[in-house]
Structure prediction request, 720 residues.
Amino acid sequence: MPAARADEADGEWRMPARDYASTRFSPLAEITAANVRQLKEAWSFTTGVQAGHEAAPIFAGGLLYVVTPYPNHVFALDTAGKQRWKYDPKPQPSSQGVACCDVVNRGAVYDGGRLYFNTLDGNSIALDARTGKELWRTKLGKIELGETITMAPLVVKGKVLVGNSGAELGVRGWLVALDAKTGKPLWRAYSTGPDKEVLIGAGFKPFYGAERGQDLGVKSWPPEAWKIGGGTVWGWISYDPQLNLIYYGTGNPGPWNPEQRPGDNKWTAGLFARDVDTGQARWFYQFSPHDLHDYDAINENVLVDLPIGGATRKLLVRPERNGYVYVIDRASGEVISATPFVHITTSTGVDLKSGRLQYNPKTQPKPGRVVRDICPASPGAKDWQPAAWSPRTGLLYIPHQNLCQDAGTYETSYIAGTPYVGAEVRMKPGPGGHRGEFSAWDPVAAQKRWSVKENFPVWSGALATAGGVVFYGTMDGVFKALDANSGEVLWSFRTSSGIIGQPVSYRGADGKQYIAVLSGVGGWAGTIVSGEIDARDGSAALGFVNAMRDLPKYTVKGGMLHVFALP
Amino acid sequence: MRKITLAPLFGLVMLAGCEREQRQFEIPPAQAQFAKPLHAANERNAYALSQGKTLFKWFNCAGCHSNGGGGMGPALMDDHWRYGNNAEDIYASIMEGRPNGMPSFRGKLNEDQAWQLVAYVRSMSGWARQDAAPGRDDSMYPGKPENMRDQRN
Prediction:
């Protein structure tokens, strides 16, 4: 396993995924399957913001840090929940109108006494973690073009890695590396366009033929379309220190209407491996070539070394939006297996020879026609909400959806700073009628071990702990602890608003293990509550409202940090 | 985008039935001060309202406001208005933009199109003559069409 960073403090949680391998696994084991029933809320803290709280709390140097959704306030709290400092970046209000799916923020990162985070209006900011003093601020995105930033940065070898959001508005995706000391850009890799702007050069050795050729980021598009072609980088980045490679995915191509962009639409809806020093691409794999259904490929990449076919291999496990769990050789980019983890009607499988997803022509969008029973729906089998990996159980805990949709596509014109979608969607529950699931997946056997059905999409992250307990929250506001082996629900706690945040665990000043999570419903799935949508219009919030009409009966807006411990 | 041909402005006093079917085209600049009364006519005019509905999609209003239920922008079919639902308020929202992310469409829409949009936006929450508001939908919106809505929703 690539070192969960050699951090003496196993009681800290310095980045949303906890470590570079993106395991979200806490080595703390005071809270166990035997005693978790006694878990109590120790304290809570109201953020004063009432939009979707998707962030992970960060714990480092004895302080807990929280970034709120827009207006992106940052709080530093001591271990008793008392506020040490607050920082207000004052983002431009107009950024709210171009955030496709609520005004979320996925968290900050602590590194070397500094706290790094991004604002909705496209700034990357470094603060002194002790005092909250601003050290630098770099403006990266242009709101006028529909560009926002919602992702949590990753800090690797003195570089702050940041990507943009806005593929629903024809934004061209990029990932930039900033000097952690000064905030100055060191390299920028675009997701579309000529090789020199994508940072594809002599070292680019993709595993499959479809990725080889010159300037595919231009040639796999109609003329000029790559300039407004999406592929934004709003999800998760992992890092393997031995291979010196970072791994991250690119978002959907723009517009959603595939008729307007014949071709594979490189390098959208796929996964890049890049040298972190230079940004140069090593390999790329496209999960959804010429994406038909808004299957962004920005999900987390869990780096694990596992025995497959007799030998231990360096792997990347990836529960993907298109419905498959991929097991990929992270040195070469070879797909070892791709196994469905939800009901899929949009494709029939992945051809392991060519690596290519086999689309089902029956669910292919056709202009002027409504195509029914597209499964998974546009947010996919699983959206941004990150899974957790336990090396103890060898299972990946995946929070996900069970949604299908009917969709119609139409020609749309590009007007800078406005949506560039060209599709009208109506989502609905998938087979069985439940809209969410929390599944334990065995990547070696390539099968589901157990799964818990949920009424609403499970839009929160997952947390695994050495105590044999896993945690997640529901959109109707129940925070749950499950037995990591059996999936049995051992404990639950009702919060004042639905949970879409990322639970974490840390060791407090008193030596005890704490579990922390933000409540505050919203995000794409919860816009019906946070954005006060009119539920009569099922097409609202890009069609998610049709599947979520009853959510307002279960929960209200909120924004609160909850911290739990044993008595 | 289709170019709308210029035609002389009709007299403003009309029989109601006539008004519903009549087509208003671009307002000559000299008569721009008549925009408000013209708007009143738009709300009783089936052609203006259906033009407004088409423009709502063409100019990507629908991308942010969906079919009125909202998304990136607020719902427009409900009875909650941040900036007021008078014709002038809605006109200002569209042409000047609003601070929390409503872009300005000045320079993209002409006056005539803007007022057609105003009428259509008001019809979403039932502020248009019912026999003039769009009654059919080529979208997948499953609810009541605009001509079945009243101000109390």
About this structure: Residues 1-17, 25-33 of chain B have pLDDT under 50 and may be disordered. Residues 93 and 132 of chain B are 24 Å apart (CA to CA). The interface with chain A takes residues 1, 57-60, 63-64, 66-75, 77-78, 80, 99-103, 108, 139-144 of chain B (CB under 8 Å).
